[in-house]
Amino acid sequence: MTPVILSVLILGCSSSTGNRSETVGPVPFVFRKLALEQKKSNGDIDWKLSSPEARYELSRRLVRAKQPVGVLYNKNAPSFKIRADFAVVINDGDQIILEGNVQLQQVNGQKILIKGERLRWQPQLSRLVMEEQPRAFDDRSRITATLATLQQDTNDLTLSGPVQLDRWQDELALTVKPDTAVRTEKAFWNLNDGALKADGPVLGQRRDQEGVVLEQLEGRELKGNTQKGVITVKAPVIVIMPKNKGLLRAKDTSWNFRKQTLSSNAPFEGLINQTQINGESFRAELDQSSVVIPEGCRIQQPGERLEAGQCRWNWKTDDVLATGGVRLERESNNQITEAQTLSGSVGEKGALTFSAPGKKVRSQVTIEEEKNGQDSQRSKAPVSF
Pairing with 166, which of 3, 243, 327, 365 sits 20 to 30 Å away (CA)? Predict the structure, then answer.
């Protein structure tokens, strides 16, 4: 790393009143304009910093600057613009402290804006640490943490937890409550390609504008990409619909923020009160309050068991639709009903009731006759209709 190049326009030196013998310490220089620049050993520009007014303490090699504005470079091209209310440059650039309304604006890529109240910048390590109230923004998201560390040469942002991602369905509007919130522990985010990884436990919620939780997701950890608007929560995963007493237990589950869908390609188990739903995979369409089981749908409740090629459950209306080779078995009279489509609904006690109005069905019932108060083992002929 080459030494800092200092360009100044001298306003004058500060002076003390009274006897010179009472002056404590050396007199600092005051600059009307300050410009600092540092280059890497290969000659590429590393960073620039300017200020309309600064004080330089020669003996301490310390610069105090007001309203500093700077540019960080990567491969000789601007990567971030930086500004703050105040800056302290230590040892001619070994370390720079920025305080008060600190802003780091990414020039290219996702154009992430990082804000905070205190930034510790170590140019030789290409490291910037936002120590107070770090927040990162893109056009639809906000991430908050207790500490944020940016590695300038790789654009890797490390967020120390608890970390919270708030996301808006439309453009970022801080006056409106976010549609989605995801909380994790330590997170790693690449500002070039949007790759995101976070330690758990993971807690995700989708809320209405009153802040009421519509769906909640819990998992072990997550991986995803903010550019694509998708995260995958690692198993075991639990999805809860609090208002409708619905619950899904699943393996790795992907959350698409843009399409507002949850999906898993692995077997899962769902519960609606006493009703159990199983399938080989699922896709939850959050905007429509529906879960689609595209294959291997199985529904079981006390006294009944249903199998179908596909099922759809709307947890807002409590409607259930089963299609494709539907087979419904009832313990009562050993009844078996087969159809291409059966529709049902969840009752007050959580039980599902199915019917096929206007549809062709085939039912088989076994009737056991009573003889002299005892069951006759000779009359078990099935009745089909």
Answer: 243
Dist CA 223 CA 345 (whole Å): 36
Partners of 311 in beta bridges: 293, 322
Domains assigned to the chain: 1-14+26-133 (2.60.450.10), 258-385 (2.60.450.10)
**Both tokens of residue 52?**
């309309």
Residue 121 CA, chain-centre distance (Å), reads: 27
pLDDT at 241 over 60: yes
Provide CB contacts within 8 A for 315, sequence distance 6+: 241, 244, 246, 272, 289, 290, 291
What is the Cα–Cα distance from 197 to 158, expressed in whole angstroms? Answer: 10
Instruction: Judge whether 207 and 214 are in contact, CB under 8 Å.
Output: yes
Nearest to 181 by CA among 162, 168, 196, 190: 168
User: How many Å apart are CA 327 and CA 339, to the nearest integer?
Assistant: 7
Burial tier of 133 (Cβ tally within 10 Å: 0-12, 13-18, 19+): middle
315-345: pLDDT as tens digits: 888 888 999 999 999 887 788 889 999 998 8
CA distance to 110, 298, 350, 355, 384, per residue, from 347 (Å):
48, 19, 5, 13, 28
Whether the CB-CB separation of 68 and 49 falls below 8 Å is answered with yes
Contact 365, 383 (CB under 8 A): yes
pLDDT number for residue 354: 80
Give the model confidence (pLDDT) of 262-286 as tens digits.
999 999 999 877 789 999 999 999 8
Amino acid at 16: S
Closest CA to 136 of 175, 187, 176: 187
Minimal CA–CA distance to 179: which of 201, 208, 145? 208
Q: Give the separation between CA 124 and CA 242, rounded to whole angstroms.
A: 51
Radius of gyration of the chain (CA): 33
